[in-house]
Automatic annotation (TrEMBL):
One Pfam family per UniProt: BLOC1_2
Gene Ontology biological process: endosomal transport; lysosome localization
One Gene Ontology molecular-function label: gamma-tubulin binding
InterPro entries linked to this entry: BLOC1_su2 (IPR019269)
GO cellular component assignments: BLOC-1 complex; BORC complex; gamma-tubulin complex
Protein name per Swiss-Prot or TrEMBL: Biogenesis of lysosome-related organelles complex 1 subunit 2
Family, as annotated: Belongs to the BLOC1S2 family.
Organism: Vanessa tameamea (Kamehameha butterfly)
């Protein structure tokens, strides 16, 4: 397209099926350009670059944060694992201590309790028998 055709097309707006993509511009290095457009284009590219750099930095920050969270989680779970191992060992020691030292003592306490209950029952029977003897003795004395 010549410059006249482009000017005519832009002026008239009659060729609606003819569309020029911005990527198909006719930029040439030696042609003089409007300095305002060049300045604006430079600003656009700088700001676009800054935006993209910021997006990449934000993505990197998110990645670093996730790495730190993962490290902390690994540390926390390692601590919890050590805690559960220590608790398991302690629990096993207490179970062994219960079975070897406390359980026999509890069995002895149960036996003593059974004997005390039997002595108590015998004491009640003896008390009852003594009351009967006392009553008979009073009867015999009165006669």
């Amino acid at each position: 397209m010549s410059e006249e055709d482009v000017a005519k097309w832009a002026k008239d707006g009659q060729n609606k099926e003819l569309f020029m993509s911005p990527s198909c511009s006719s930029f040439e290095m030696l042609d003089p350009h409007d300095p305002v457009i060049s300045r604006l284009a430079t600003q656009l590219f700088k700001k676009t670059n800054d935006y993209l750099q910021g997006e990449m930095a934000a993505g990197q920050d998110h990645y670093n944060l996730l790495e730190e969270i993962n490290r902390l989680a690994i540390t926390k779970y390692a601590d919890l694992k050590n805690l559960t191992i220590n608790l398991s060992k302690t629990l096993n020691e207490y179970n062994e201590m219960y079975n070897s030292q406390i359980k026999p003592l509890l069995l002895q306490i149960d036996q003593i309790d059974a004997q005390v209950s039997q002595f108590e029952a015998n004491a009640y029977r003896l008390d009852s028998y003594t009351k009967q003897l006392k009553a008979r003795f009073k009867e015999l004395e009165e006669k």
